[in-house]
Amino acid sequence: MKRHYIPVTAAVPGVNESRIAFIRKVIRTALAAQGVDFPCEVDVLVTNDEEIRQLNRETRQVDRATDVLSFPAFDLRPGELPGPEDADPGTGLVPLGDMMISMEHVTAQAKEYGHSNRRELGYLVVHSVLHLLGYDHVDEGPMKAQMREREEVILTRMGLSARPSGGENG
Q1: How far apart are CA 57 and CA 152, in angstroms?
Q2: Concatenated DSSP letters of 97-150
Q3: CA–CA separation, 117 vs 110, rounded Å?
Q4: Is the distance from CB of 70 to CB of 99 less than 8 angstroms?
Q5: Among 1, 19, 78, 150, which is most buried by a count of CB atoms within 10 Å?
Q6: Quick check: pTM over 0.85?
Q7: Average model confidence (pLDDT) across the chain
Q8: pLDDT tens for each residue of 95-119
């Protein structure tokens, strides 16, 4: 079977091959946990607060930096998946969407929550994959609880403990 294509662009210093490999592993683990068994593409940009703030302002009209932005290619409901028929005819890959992560926020939130940058980065990547697959947390109700439950399952599978509630995405 063709593997997932996960290009990672690092627009900031300090994002080495090991960190890029970790991001790809988290994405593959999250996709497998969600039953994505067809080859797909997820594009990742690792950046800083200034660049993510600019994109947040342009796309969401929110003029502040954030930890992660997700741009799903499909309008899915949680648990719903695109199918092989949604694949790009040229590549054979289903384009799930794009994620943008601020390493400045990763560092600050890891410190705030008292865990490693690796743990925080893993959480944000899982969080973004779930957004690409239709999960959301627009309210404090069942949708948010469902997303948190899936995050916990995937993070546990990766050996990364769950993050305390609170914070920008909390």
Answers
A1: 30
A2: EEEEEEHHHHHHHHHHHTS-HHHHHHHHHHHHHHHHTT---SSSSHHHHHHHHH
A3: 5
A4: yes
A5: 150
A6: yes
A7: 91
A8: 999 999 999 999 999 999 999 999 9
Beta-strand pair 94-102/8-10: unpaired
- How far is Cα 57 from Cα 77, in angstroms, rounded to an integer? 25
Residue 142 φ/ψ, nearest 5 degrees: -60, -35
* Alpha carbons 170 and 156: distance in angstroms, whole number: 18
User: Hey, what amino acid is at 44?
Assistant: V
Contact 120, 113 (CB under 8 A): yes
Q: Domain 8-157 falls in which CATH fold? A: Collagenase (Catalytic Domain) (3.40.390)
Strands 68-72 and 94-102: antiparallel
Q: Note the pLDDT of residue 66.
A: 96
Tell me what pLDDT residue 162 has: 56
Question: pLDDT, tens digit, for every residue of 57-88?
Answer: 999 999 999 999 999 999 999 989 998 899 99
Helix 17-33 and helix 142-157, axial crossing angle in degrees, nearest 10: 120
Six-digit token pair at 119?
């743990």
